[in-house]
Amino acid sequence: MLFKNISIINENLEIQNNMFVGIKGDKIDYIGTGKPQENYGEEYDGTGKVLSSGFVNLHTHSPMTLLRGYAENLPLDRWLNEKVFPFEDRLNCDRAYYGTMLSIAEMLACGTTSFTDMYFFGDGVMKAVIDSKAKTNFGRSIVSFVDEDITANERFQEGIYLAEKYHNTENGKIKIDMSLHAEYTNRLSIIEQFGEFTNGKDYINHIHLSETKAEHENCKAKYGKTPARLFYDAKVFNSPTILAHCVWVEDEDMDIFKEMGVTVAHCPASNMKLGSGFCDTYKLLQKGVNVGIGTDSAASNNGLDIMREMYLAALLPKGVNNQADIVTPQDAYRMATVNGYKAQGRHDCGAIKVGNKADLIVLDMSTPNMYPDFDILNNLVYSANKSNVVLTMVDGEVLYKNGEFTTIDVERMGFEVSRLVREVVNEVKSNG
Length: 432
Known about the structure:
This protein is of the alpha/beta class.
């Protein structure tokens, strides 16, 4: 495909107008002010539009879209125990498949080209990813409340099975991460074995950390150290690690993150909706910590719109610190793009430059909410919404265009989701 007469956000976050961008295979092959001599096939007229790197949803649980609106106005502990866990007990690979397809469709329509997922029923999730041609890092989270050999843990075994079957498949679009659910859902011996196992492996770790004050303080009371220090001492951070939430982390924790190259996945909407608080991204950025953006699940958000999260990520620090000039639109945009891809280990993504993967989105700038255009990047962060996304491309293939999906049968998916959700709710009631 050749994008022509289009504005682009280049790798330096500068706006260049009336550009040509040629896509060959799964990569960006040409960027210039003049039309290339080479034939790139279909030509896309970008007049009134901007070409951007696709967004990364750095923390979500895609099958949980099935629980959207099911558990409301509860704090995290009650939300999980009273509503989420009984529902999840009735899921299987087939049901997880449709939940994941629903999530992927929503994310593609919001301009998300890659997502980092933590869940179970991995074969069901992987089937959805492959069928939709999406891009993901997936981790099967480990939970263990007993001191056991980690290799005997069924969740760990599933994670290894998934890694052996799917890691770096689909031309690298699928990566398998290693995942511990959290400190409070695992014994210390499991955490230590996890750190030993992952050290030196070709995997990224994905963990919930310090999401609530109770979680954070209970860990300190139990071990005399914060969850971050606990994982550090267990050598978990010796491998590349993504930590979701980090709402209650302390200054020393942030120093650890910087030292170890840990990435924080900031989930502003979910954290506020559950009454957990919000992550101090300003301080993290000041310390030089890599920060990405996640939605968490649609069960706690209730959407998967990374543009809404980017807006919140830009605004929250200003209001909390009473400073309008901190966490700039450039910071927020980097969180949603290159920072997320860096955390996923995808270093050839996240910026529009020759040789990078063609993970791209087109945004319509000719809508009422995007005028006037004093600064396109400001408009993108503060004014744009998912309705401005008119095309989403993953590895050079258009998966979403003008409200239509090329790999997902939305009508069938909606029918199946409605059917299976009714089944699950009835099963929960009959077993309640």
